[in-house]
Amino acid sequence: MKPYEIAAEVKPSERQLNWQKTEFYGFINFGLATVVNKEWSDGSVSPVNFCPDEFDAAEWVEFFKDAGFKGMVLNVKHHDGFCLWDSQYTRYSVASATDWDVENRDIVALLSEECKAQGLKFGIAISPLDRRDESYGSGEAYNTYFKNLLREVLTKYGDIFYVRFDGAAEPDKNGNVQEYDWLGYYEVVRECQPNAVIALVGPDVRWYGNEWGVIRENEWSVIPERHSIYNAFERSKDTSKRARRKAEKFEIDLGSRKAIKKEKEFIWYPCEVSMSIRDRWYYHKEDEYSAKTKDRLQKIYLQTVGSNCCWMLGVPPMKNGKFAEMDFQILKAFGHDLKRAYNYKVSSIGTITASSSFSDIYKAENLFSEDEFKTWIPADNDKEPELTITLSQKDMFDKIVMQEHIISGQHIEGYEVYIDKGDGKFKKVAEGQVVGYKRIVKITPTEVTRVKIKITSYRGKLEMENVTLY
Known about the structure:
CATH architecture of the largest domain: Alpha-Beta Barrel
Distance between the termini: 40 Å
CATH topology of the largest domain: TIM Barrel
Number of domains: 2
Helix content: 10-25%
């Protein structure tokens, strides 16, 4: 088999599918670093200083839902070792925040319960680096301590959809280097939360590689196996200058036929784009100038969720437990516009036909169904299949959402979009390559009577589950 034929057979796990459907979720960094106005606290700050007396879990979750997030990821322990839950393994936690005069200081409990109540997915981020615990740098003893923390937080708070491991590391005060037991950490996650994806330093979700929104035009979920996190661990043992240069290389193309022509093994390793609404992850009043506008967020949404990625956006609370008014207003407006933008389905007043169908079961009409398992597959001999949407009356749209049935893999390598304004002639208005889980094609708002989508290239057995005009 040719490399692209092998790649066409690779499929996601159930946990990766469920994560991909989350699409857009928020990331909260909150703790003693917030109190001392730093990104990294050093572990010496007393928990007594943590006093978010205006924190309201219900208010946080309601805000995230209004912003359009489908999930909340909480950084439960950052590099200073401070835990946002009441742990039996350390008193360096919210339990010791005695100036915060509330009955329940367990923020992880409060937020996870509220997410469940309001229908938002809940996930965690956690750092193995620990500037507080005395066992850090000792090897096995610290790994045991960290796994105890991990097992505790993964078993006390219900379903967790996402676990994000930070890879930061540094020597302890005596210069000892702590070797993280990554495989052991993964075993704990699989044992306690088998449905959770493991991200960043993890085997399920691939980090994009930067925090500034510099994004590939075509992002493949099926990529060469050499990019797996396990191979990264092996490469990290090679400290040569050549190895460092190779590791730092940012490849523009990870999955096209040209890029994989010499590859033999492939994995499903989908991409997450992570960035903060401000320049930094924790709240700093002086960062207000850097807050991304609503228009900027809309553009990033199209470049991430609309381009076969998931997007995690950092929203840092202030030390009193409230979100900055500027961030609050920007995200509320963004969420309102997001809901409006994908509310009216122009294609619902039309019919859809195809140049071919594999059988009556896989007909083009399935693409208008709400059932994700009703799909369209073209005939085997149709090498450039076409879909035509004919509206019952002229109407205006500016977005086309296309989705492959990624349960069966990722196949589309090229597409073109044409419109008919009513004169019976088709004019090409867009073209691209990757579709994957979701591709949102944005065009100038236009009144049309017909839309044609041509799949100009695909690998394996093409299967699509949705095409919608908005």
